[in-house]
């Protein structure tokens, strides 16, 4: 199963992660070529294989994207023999990743001290809401709670409104940071031959996203929620155009851009109070009002193009359909068309980086059926005979 | 470079790795900051007027120093080189000869003039990992487009989907809302750091290479769910992307977040609320029925929440296994018992010499703790030592 010309070809991950954040981290490494073995069981499938009505739908949630590329095996981790097999998978892997609640991996018999016995230089990733230590480490949570605990939710919002709930972008940001930390762990593994246990708390990723506000708070300043405003740029915001719910984003930082912007929208403001950047910041409410009126009759897409031609930061506020239709993202393979038997062609998110000499990155195969890759993993990698596997299935060890 | 035997026992993950950072954007600076936190030696190559982030808001009130720059530059070094001059380009070349990774966010069309051309650098430094970090990447029809954080959040689709939940309910006609600060830039930076280390992984086998990172792509990655939903046949919108019940609630003294995905969590919530009659209606045992009657359920929960203090709610909820968290202010985060216990913050030195506390990194390496700290470099503090 070696992937040619992918940067992480030859790296193997034993993947015990569930939900969104952990699976995204290993999925990302798999996009770069790592071989990722996802370990689940029929009795306890990844909770994201099943639907949750609180989202207002009965189809499964984020499972397909973050499970793409992965190999699937079943192991009933409540059975001691299954734990022994899981340890064998770890022994032939560079990385073991889990996102159980703190303490669960140890209770299962898959804690770091056990895994380093199986593989003396293992890089173990433990991704959780609040981390492996600390008074809140037992707290359960999901993306919106990470944002709340970490301070990002408080800082986001209209200045006269409540804090804002973070959604999957928060989960996936934690997963991205986890993949990054894991990659650092792999370098350390290769250099030192020593094991490493990485403890990533999703709420701390939310805090890292307000790192500058935390610096201010430590220095005795109370950071303010500014909504769509900015402390340096005006006009800076999201403005309605000639179609319903069609908005353009603008971020104008200097007088030249302001002059060019006025020319392009066909208006000129003679009020000397806003002729320079400092004045526009002081009178930002009036500037916003004026810009809103100027932009309102414009076509958003054409205006963005004209502003970009003059080097002015502008972009339409894109819906997901706009993304799907974008040639730029598809040329970059950031969006990738995928299909498989029984799965009509659809778009998925591909590699967020292009590598000049190891270009084979991205999605290679779609969501595996539960246990689809047991012949390869149990048979070829671990050397178990088919009869032995069948016997373990009959006793619900492989289950 | 990685050849020194002493490095085998060095404790930080990226000990011995040298990075040259020639960046003006938050994305580029955050990439360097993450690598520095992981133990790499990171040198900022600045123009004589300094990296613009030195002057970027927000600021420490008393000095005009940038709090954003302090967060992003702590632990790095600074060398000044004017890349418009031969001498400046020589300083850069001398540095690149000793570096493993080069982070650059210069717009593509300006690179040749400054000696930053991809092919040229690849020939001169065949072992170098050259990472380009641009708003829309270095190739593609929009490679030359310019963007600030606001534009990128919306170019990747997440901006259009915010705010959801209570904010959208309260202000349904307002413009979509930005996530605080530099969220998209940080995703770009984390992606660039990941991609840099990924390319570095292959250096022993295949030598250096060029890596093209786009902040838009990185933000799209973390917003991947909306693309998946589109493939499933539905289009997300901020007005409808809300939990049917749960979400943001006002309490007596602040705000909390509540989210129950599992039946057992719903049952525990009913306990938390004191088993009110409305919640005991048998029909509500069905998650689909709860979903249908979400507004009604939320009205009941809201009425209860405003009578209680956030800390009390969180304490009782977590005891019962109900996922609830308080919306904490930055000050509460910095003073948090949990964060203190975990050593999330470290002491460092500002450019003016005074101490300050800064978030070290959002991950811990338990077998060999990250060092962190250090100082915010003065402009060009290392230039003399690095003069060629």
CATH superfamily of the largest domain in chain B: Crotonobetainyl-coa:carnitine coa-transferase, domain 1
Beta strand % of chain A? 15-25%
Named at the architecture level, the CATH assignment of the largest domain in chain B is: 3-Layer(aba) Sandwich
Number of domains of chain A: 2
Termini distance of chain A?
A: 24 Å
Strand residues, percent of chain B: 5-15%
Helix content of chain A: 25-40%
In total, how many domains does the architecture of chain B comprise? 2
Classification by helices and strands of chain A: alpha/beta
The biggest beta sheet of chain B reads: 6 strands, parallel
Greatest interface and its residue counts? Answer: A-B, 156 and 162 residues
CATH T-level topology of the largest domain in chain B:
Rossmann fold
How much is the average pLDDT of chain A? 93
Please tell me how large the radius of gyration of chain A is.
Answer: 25 Å
C-alpha geometry of chain A = elongated
The helix content of chain B is 25-40%
At the fourth CATH level, what is the homologous superfamily of the largest domain in chain A?
Answer: Crotonobetainyl-coa:carnitine coa-transferase, domain 1
């Amino acid at each position: 199963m070696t992937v040619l010309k992918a940067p992480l070809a030859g790296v193997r991950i034993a993947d015990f992660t569930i939900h969104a954040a952990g699976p995204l981290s290993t999925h990302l490494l798999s996009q770069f070529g790592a071989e990722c073995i996802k370990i689940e069981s029929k009795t306890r499938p990844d909770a994201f294989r099943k639907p949750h009505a609180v989202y207002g739908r009965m189809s499964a949630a984020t499972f397909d994207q973050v499970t793409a590329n992965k190999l699937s095996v079943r192991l009933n981790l409540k059975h001691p023999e299954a734990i022994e097999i899981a340890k064998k998978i770890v022994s032939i892997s560079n990385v073991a990743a889990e996102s159980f609640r703190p303490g669960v991996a140890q209770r299962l018999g898959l804690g770091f001290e056990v895994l380093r016995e199986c593989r003396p230089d293992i890089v173990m990733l433990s991704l959780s809401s609040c981390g492996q230590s600390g008074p809140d480490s037992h707290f359960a949570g999901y993306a919106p709670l990470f944002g709340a605990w970490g301070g990002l939710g408080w800082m986001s919002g209209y200045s006269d409104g409540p804090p804002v709930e973070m959604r999957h972008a928060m989960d996936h940001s934690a997963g991205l940071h986890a993949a990054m930390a894991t990659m650092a762990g792999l370098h350390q593994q290769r250099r030192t031959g020593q094991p490493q246990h990485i403890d990533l708390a999703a709420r701390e990723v939310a805090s890292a996203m307000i790192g500058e506000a935390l610096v201010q708070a430590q220095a005795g300043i109370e950071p303010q929620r500014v909504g769509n405003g900015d402390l340096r740029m005006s006009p800076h915001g999201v403005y309605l155009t000639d179609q319903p719910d069609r908005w353009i984003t603008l971020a104008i930082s200097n007088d030249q851009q302001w002059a060019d912007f006025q020319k392009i929208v066909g208006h000129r403001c003679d009020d000397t109070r806003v002729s320079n950047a400092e004045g526009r910041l002081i009178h930002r409410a009036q500037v916003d009002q004026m810009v809103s009126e100027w932009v309102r009759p414009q076509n958003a897409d054409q205006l963005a193009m004209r502003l970009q031609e003059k080097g002015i930061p502008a972009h339409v506020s894109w819906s997901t359909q706009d993304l799907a239709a974008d040639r730029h993202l598809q040329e970059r393979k950031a969006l990738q068309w995928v299909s498989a038997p029984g799965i009509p062609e659809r778009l998925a998110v591909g590699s967020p980086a292009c590598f000049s000499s190891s270009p084979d990155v991205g999605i290679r195969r779609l969501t595996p059926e539960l246990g689809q890759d047991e012949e390869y993993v149990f048979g070829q990698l671990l050397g178990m005979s088919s009869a032995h596997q069948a016997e373990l299935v009959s006793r619900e060890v492989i289950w | 470079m990685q050849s020194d035997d002493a490095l085998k026992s060095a404790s930080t993950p990226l000990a011995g790795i040298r990075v040259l950072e020639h960046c003006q954007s938050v994305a580029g600076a955050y990439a360097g900051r993450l690598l520095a936190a992981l133990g790499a030696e990171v040198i900022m190559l600045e123009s004589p007027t300094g990296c613009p982030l030195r002057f970027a808001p927000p600021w420490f009130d008393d000095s005009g120093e940038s709090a954003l720059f302090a967060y992003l530059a702590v632990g790095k070094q600074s060398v000044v080189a004017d890349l418009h001059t031969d001498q400046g380009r020589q300083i850069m070349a001398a540095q690149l000869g000793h570096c493993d990774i080069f982070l650059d966010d210069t717009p593509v069309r300006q690179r040749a003039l400054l000696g930053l051309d991809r092919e040229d650098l690849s020939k001169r430094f065949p072992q170098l990992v050259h990472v380009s970090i641009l708003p829309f990447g270095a190739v593609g029809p929009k490679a030359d487009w310019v963007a600030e954080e606001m534009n990128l959040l919306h170019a990747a689709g997440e901006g259009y989907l915010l705010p959801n939940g209570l904010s959208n309910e309260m202000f349904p006609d307002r413009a979509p809302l930005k996530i605080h600060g530099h969220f998209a830039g940080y995703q770009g930076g984390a992606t660039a750091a990941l991609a840099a280390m990924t390319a570095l992984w292959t250096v022993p086998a295949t030598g250096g290479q060029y890596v093209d990172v786009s902040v838009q792509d990185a933000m799209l990655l973390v917003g991947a769910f909306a693309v998946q939903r589109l493939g499933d046949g539905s289009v997300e919108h901020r007005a409808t992307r809300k939990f049917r019940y749960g979400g943001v609630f006002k309490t007596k003294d602040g705000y909390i977040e509540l989210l129950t995905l599992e039946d057992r969590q719903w049952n525990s919530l009913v306990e938390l609320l004191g088993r009110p009659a409305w919640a005991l209606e048998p029909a509500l045992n069905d998650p689909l029925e709860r979903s249908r009657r979400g507004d009604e359920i939320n009205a009941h929960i809201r009425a209860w929440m405003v009578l209680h203090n956030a800390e009390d709610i969180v304490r009782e909820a977590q005891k019962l296994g109900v996922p609830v968290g308080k919306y904490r202010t930055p000050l509460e985060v910095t003073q948090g018992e949990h964060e203190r216990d975990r050593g999330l913050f470290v002491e460092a030195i500002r450019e003016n010499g005074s101490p300050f506390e800064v978030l070290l990194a959002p991950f811990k390496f338990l077998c060999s703790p990250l060092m962190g700290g250090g100082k915010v470099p003065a402009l060009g503090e290392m230039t003399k030592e690095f003069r060629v």
